[in-house]
Specification:
Strand order of the largest sheet: 4-1-6-7
Number of strands: 8
Shape: elongated
Strand content: 35-45%
Largest sheet: 4 strands, antiparallel
Number of helices: 2
Amino acid sequence: MRFRIPIAVAGALVVMMTALVGGTAASAAAAGDMGVNAVQRYTIFVHTANINGAGTDATVKMKVYGTVAESPGYVNLDNSADNFERNSNDYFGPFSWFDIGRPDFIGVYKGSNGSEWYPEYAQVYAHATGTWYNCPMNAYYGDGEETRWFDCP
């Protein structure tokens, strides 16, 4: 035997369940598919400066810290291209993470397995909102292993 619930009754059940767990029907409807537990896609872009010695072959990893959460660990930024060369534009992802909110700052790690590096800026693209978040870097990384943090104003 199959049970069918009329749409009006199903809607009332959603309103009641939302109220029971502490929210309101309006906030649940406004949230749609976006929210702290929703999986979102993010793309990372890195521009290496156009100055002598700016490029590197070292391992580069990034962690994105958002207003709601952070990316899961440091993501290895690598693909089939020769990344992080002088005056290069490198794209990585898309990555699927739980919603981190607005990217607030990034942690960028450069390994000691390559030369110095001078990244000019990074950007994080949130596919859900269609927004690029700029993170100026203008930093010199030496030969050694190093992690630095940069704001995404």
